[in-house]
């Protein structure tokens, strides 16, 4: 896990107090976060939590009822939108158009000359492993290769910020590694990178910080280590204790017993030495291992609260 980056006084992508309603339904409420230059930010939540709505507002596809979006301290307008590389969850490529022609066309829409567009397309199709399919129609590609081309479309104009909605969906492990490396390279160049994903093990592995949203609100934000430190400690005890030996101990909020051991969930008041003493007094102890919840467990806890 990469070390957290100290927030600079300015720059990057800022989402400030976004609100959005559809009639009586609140889609977003006071959505606020900042993505620093060179930071990879994981944006996670259940289906319908507001992730795609937030991203579409950043792009200007949707208008917010309240709040604002800034890139490098400037409100996002048409000129700035051209500097954003966007990958939608619903793929937006023309299926009957050839890969190379389509990517060059998109690059030229961002203001590149034909020669510049051609060079950038050649670079990205090669980098993303679809160079041999450059003259094929997009609709003839596998879903995984279509995903690679969609990422190339987000990257081809050398964006100042990347906003990617479920970029890893449907990719095989090799393609996931390639895409992860590309995002890390763009971040190393100082680009703020934001992506949503349901693959929380991947988010935990490559993101500097993570924001967890539920029902249109940001419920938790921070580094993975910081977020995990907020959760309850899990304690694995291996031994010969009888079932029920930890019931009623201070700080034990849940206990699951099985042959040869128990899994205990502890809150901040628990004393592990007191628990160890209780375990030793009722049987032999062969293992005693505390751990923090991973991002998947934390996610479940946050969105269900």
Please give the count of helices.
Answer: 10
The SSE string, one letter per element, is EEEHEEHEHHHEHEHEEHEEEHEH
Counting structural domains, the number is: 2
Mean of all residue-level pLDDT scores: 90
The major β-sheet equals:
6 strands, mixed
Secondary-structure class: alpha/beta
Report the sheet-strand fraction.
25-35%
CATH fold-type name of the largest domain = Rossmann fold
Taking strands numbered 1, 2, ... along the chain, how are they ordered across the largest sheet?
6-7-8-3-9-10
Q: Quickly name the level 1 CATH class of the largest domain.
A: Alpha Beta
Instruction: Tell me the CATH superfamily of the largest domain.
Output: P-loop containing nucleotide triphosphate hydrolases
Instruction: Give me the CATH architecture of the largest domain, please.
Output: 3-Layer(aba) Sandwich
Low-confidence regions: 1-9
Task: Give the arrangement of secondary structure elements.
Elements: E1 13-22, E2 25-35, E3 40-45, H1 51-59, E4 66-71, E5 74-75, H2 78-81, E6 84-87, H3 99-109, H4 114-127, H5 143-155, E7 161-165, H6 173-188, E8 193-196, H7 200-206, E9 209-214, E10 217-222, H8 224-230, E11 233-239, E12 252-258, E13 261-266, H9 272-282, E14 285-291, H10 295-304
Parallel strand pairs: 3-8, 3-9, 6-7, 7-8
Antiparallel strand pairs: 1-2, 1-4, 4-5, 9-10, 11-13, 11-14, 12-13
Helix pairs in contact: 3-4
């Amino acid at each position: 896990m990469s070390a957290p980056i100290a927030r600079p006084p300015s720059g990057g992508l800022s989402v400030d107090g976004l609100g959005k309603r559809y009639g009586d339904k609140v889609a977003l409420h006071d959505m606020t976060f900042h993505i620093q230059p060179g930071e990879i930010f994981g944006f996670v939540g259940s289906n319908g939590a507001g992730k795609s709505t937030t991203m579409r507002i950043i792009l200007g596809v949707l208008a917010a009822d309240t709040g604002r979006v800034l890139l490098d301290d400037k409100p996002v307008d048409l000129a700035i939108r051209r500097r954003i590389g966007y990958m939608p969850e619903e793929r937006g490529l023309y299926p009957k158009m050839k890969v190379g022609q389509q990517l060059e066309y998109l690059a030229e829409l961002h203001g590149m000359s034909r020669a510049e567009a051609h060079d950038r397309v050649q670079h990205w199709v090669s980098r993303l492993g679809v160079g041999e399919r450059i003259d094929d129609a997009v609709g003839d590609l596998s879903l995984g290769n279509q995903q690679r081309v969609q990422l190339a479309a987000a990257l081809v104009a050398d964006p100042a910020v990347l906003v990617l909605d479920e970029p890893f969906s449907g990719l095989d492990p090799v393609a996931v590694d390639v895409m992860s490396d590309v995002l890390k390279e763009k971040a190393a160049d100082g680009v703020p990178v934001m992506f949503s994903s349901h693959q929380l093990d991947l988010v935990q592995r490559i993101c500097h910080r993570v924001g967890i949203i539920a029902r249109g609100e940001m419920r938790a934000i921070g580094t993975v280590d910081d977020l995990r430190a907020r959760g309850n400690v899990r304690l694995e005890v291996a031994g010969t204790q009888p079932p029920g030996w930890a019931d009623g101990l201070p700080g034990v909020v849940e206990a699951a017993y099985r042959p040869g051991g128990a899994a205990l969930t502890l809150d901040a008041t628990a004393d592990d030495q007191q628990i160890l003493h209780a375990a030793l007094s009722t049987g032999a102890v062969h293992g005693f291992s505390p751990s923090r919840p991973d991002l998947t467990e934390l996610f479940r806890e946050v969105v269900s609260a």
